[in-house]
Request: fold
Amino acid sequence: MRIPSLWLLGEVDKSVPTGASVANIQLVDTLGLFDVRVVPDADHDLRDVETGERYDYWSEIFEFIGSM
Reply:
């Protein structure tokens, strides 16, 4: 794949195994274009598993776009 991509994954995602996802993304990222970020204590919806507070992912998205 030749398109830069940002991957935001919840550390405690019970829908999709985070470790396997990171490993698979790294496997196909032969050109080093993928930015994988794991959000600590977050679930699949990027919400804190204890408080339910949503992670502010917009700052990550804007930072990624700004780096292009």
Observations:
- The longest helix spans residues 18-28.
- The two ends are 16 Å apart (CA to CA).
- The CA atoms of residues 34 and 64 lie 10 Å apart.
